[in-house]
Write a structure and sequence with these properties.
Elements: H1 2-11, H2 27-42, E1 48-57, E2 70-79, E3 93-97, E4 100-104, E5 111-120, E6 136-145, E7 151-158, H3 160-169, E8 178-187, E9 190-199, E10 205-214, E11 217-218, E12 230-233, H4 245-248
Antiparallel strand pairs: 1-10, 1-12, 2-5, 2-8, 3-4, 5-6, 6-7, 8-9, 9-10, 10-11
Length: about 250
Amino acid sequence: AVAQDQKTQAAWGGHPRLYIFDNSTDFEGKMQRLIETVAKLVGLPTNLSRSTTKFLLRESPDLSKFTVDYHIFEVEKVYLQHHHHPSKHTNNKMKQDNNTATLHYTEEDEYLFIRKRTHIDGKNHQRKKKNSSSGSVYGMTVVQHTNDGKVVEKKRIITSKEYTALSLLQRDPTRYTIKQKRISFLYKHQSFSIHIYEKPIQNLCILHAQSVTTNGKEEEIIDLPEFLDIERRLQNTKDDFKYSAHAVSLKKK
């Protein structure tokens, strides 16, 4: 059973929505965590919230020191221009007209971006065959700020054709395209991802750790990997905002 569990974890390694439900509670508690997590993913009310805690690394990680399996991805993130739809009650939608993609969204939306995520073999770290899109997935994210100060992200999968069209037609000229290498892994039943910036800046590495909160209080202690050189935890402050992809992408005037 343990071997099968490990194989299942390895098969899903690197997935952005990978959750592990350990035996820290009884069976009823485990099922409750499962139900609340599913409710959160589909947008139903729940007291449980899974968030990302970020840590600044002093340097790029040395893969030879990793004591766990990992997956490597290349990520390209393109921020798009705002094109407000006349009606605030119209849902986000993408129209395909004459082989081009046009995005319409409401004035309540703060910003949006599209992302290309390409998997690289975590064993030999070699890039997939050039011009091959078999390992790439494409998505669009709309980020909104609610009246109570929460950040809501609406995500959906798009096609490579839509991604290309939006990149050409609606790219925000005031922002750089973000390019990162990401290393995803599991450590002591917790999901981690290291974001290593390659463009427009280098030598910036951020560790993303999945954490659980209930009614705004952090519920579990994050057990940080000993093979990483961590400088400090990033806070939700204006000063630490400069380490976010949204801030890094902005071109200086």
